[in-house]
Write a structure and sequence with these properties.
Blueprint (H helix, E strand, L loop, with lengths): L1 H14 L13 E6 L4 H19 L5 E6 H13 L5 E3 L7 H9 L4 E3 L20 E5 L1 E2 L10 H4 L4 E2 L2 H13 L4 E5 L7 E2 L2 E2 H11 L4 E5 L8 H9 L6 E3 L7 H6 L6 H14 L4 E8 L6 H14 L3 E6 L17 H25 L4 E9 L6 E6 L4 E5 L9 E9 L4 E5 L1
Parallel strand pairs: 1-2, 2-3, 3-4, 5-8, 8-11, 12-13, 13-14, 17-19
Antiparallel strand pairs: 6-7, 9-10, 15-16, 15-18, 16-17, 18-19
Helix pairs in contact: 6-7, 7-8, 11-12
The structure holds S-adenosyl-L-homocysteine and iron/sulfur cluster.
């Protein structure tokens, strides 16, 4: 989401004549796009700000600004406490950035942190480097109010971009040769443009260019409709891959988190998706050590992982966020227990990913070639429909962006290896 927002900001600034530099020593403006989701994301930014001091104090004297959720959350504090920050601009005020920058060059401090009910940046084309993969935000904000989560407070109410603005942007991506587009939103499947839902949007995107693969992130279990599952099944270029955060396996914890589903409901959804979309794979998000989580609750989470067998997972320790409902609950799981539970969760996921990948040996997969393998330029890396990296020997005539059929012959927990067939 932040990568996509950074491209949006670069689009806005480029329209005003700014350009990018790869040399920080040449920069007149340095903007940090920040995340508030967990405390460690914020701590990292404080570290980065400390490192940037030298660009402020020396001859260079660049304008330094904080964008994103930390700007929204900490507002004035950032300008007052961190004297070197010239502007603080939240996620719904990026249109005003050029104005704030003019002010900053004239020595004024700028704060733009109003949240909007309507801003979707519909008309702004993000700045994208050449490549195969692109992000495309289709909605902003979140109305779910999970009790641990700061997003509804930092990114505001849920709103969708118009379908009419998205389709031309997909056409542009198609003309520029992009082959892998991820539609983004905090709850992408609650997309609603005057009655046109996320399934309608996906079907419309898929029809623009059948050579582009479409992915989407993130889906909330509550909004996973049958229509959406059938739409994925019916369109070859909609990837058979669903990121479906479960957060916990315990109904008691799910209720405390205000996740609005029970684990039984979640299982039904997974079963239904597997029936409607043969071969579909899942990934998830898990929070370990939420308030009052008992050992039994933790075991229930491990149990879901074993039952669903996710291809991958993003796994976090619970981090209390000021302003959220859970901030008033006691953060009663000590650090050591949180760490121990989290490492059990990570170890189990590694084992499951390894087993799933081993089972793929012998399969034939269609992969999109993305470029040289990270480790050797004698090998190429491609990606399956289900988002797995496959390494194949480099052969004459294979180009980036080709779709190829390969047979998988070896696997680790993170990577598949194959040969062209
Ligand atoms: N809207 C998406 C993603 C939200 S943020 C969704 O609901 O799935 C990505 C992930 O960060 C969440 O799924 C959750 O697992 C994690 N997360 C959010 N708040 C957190 C917190 N306070 N502590 C730890 N993890 C958190
Ligand atoms: Fe946060 Fe829940 Fe909204 Fe996801 S659905 S952004 S976890 S409040």
């Amino acid at each position: 989401m932040n990568l996509a927002d950074t491209e949006l900001v670069m689009g806005i600034l480029q329209n005003k004549g700014y350009s990018l530099t790869n040399e920080i020593t040449e920069a007149n403006v340095i903007l940090l796009n920040t995340c508030s989701i967990r405390d460690n994301a914020e701590q990292r930014i404080y570290g980065r700000l400390g490192n940037l001091k030298k660009y402020k104090e020396g001859k260079q004297s660049a304008v330094i600004g904080i964008l994103g959720c930390m700007a929204e959350r900490l507002r004035k504090n950032l300008i007052e406490d961190k004297k070197m920050v010239d502007l603080v601009v939240g996620p719904d005020e990026y249109r005003r950035l050029p104005e704030f920058l003019d002010g900053a060059f004239a020595g004024e401090k700028g704060i733009g942190v109003k949240l909007s009910r309507t801003e979707t940046y519909d008309d702004i084309i993000p700045f994208r480097e050449e490549g195969l993969s692109a992000w495309l935000s289709v909605m902003r904000g979140c109305d779910k109010f999970c009790t641990y989560c700061v997003v509804p407070f930092t990114r505001g109410r849920e709103r969708s971009r118009s379908l009419e603005s998205i389709i031309p942007e997909i056409k542009l991506l198609s003309e520029r040769g992009f082959k892998d587009v991820t539609l983004l939103g905090q709850n992408v499947n609650s997309y609603n443009d005057n009655g046109k839902d996320f399934a309608d949007l996906l079907a419309a995107c898929a029809a623009v260019d059948r050579d582009i693969r479409f992915r989407f992130s993130t889906s909330h279990p509550q909004d996973m409709s049958d229509k959406l599952l059938y739409t994925i099944a019916e369109n070859d270029n909609l990837c058979n891959y669903i990121h479906l955060p479960v957060q916990s396996g315990s109904n008691r914890i799910l209720e405390l988190m205000n996740r609005t589903y029970t684990i039984e409901h979640y299982y039904e959804l997974i079963d239904k998706a597997r029936k409607i979309i043969p071969g579909v794979s899942f990934s998830t998000d898990i929070i370990s050590g939420f308030s009052t989580e008992t050992y039994e609750d933790h075991i229930a989470t491990l149990d879901v992982m074993m039952k669903v067998r996710y291809d991958g997972a993003y796994m976090f320790k619970y981090s209390p966020r000021e302003g959220t409902k859970a901030f008033n609950m006691e953060d009663d799981i000590d650090e050591e227990t949180k760490s121990k539970r989290l490492s059990e969760i990570i170890d189990l996921q590694q084992k499951i990913s390894f087993e799933i990948n081993q089972e793929m040996i012998g399969n034939v997969e269609k992969i999109l070639i993305e470029g040289d393998s990270k480790k050797s330029n004698e090998f190429l890396a491609g990606r399956t429909d289900t988002n797995k990296i496959v390494i194949i020997p480099k052969l004459h005539g294979i180009k980036i962006g080709d779709y190829l059929k390969v047979k998988i012959n070896r696997a680790t927990s993170g990577t598949l290896f194959g040969d062209l067939i």
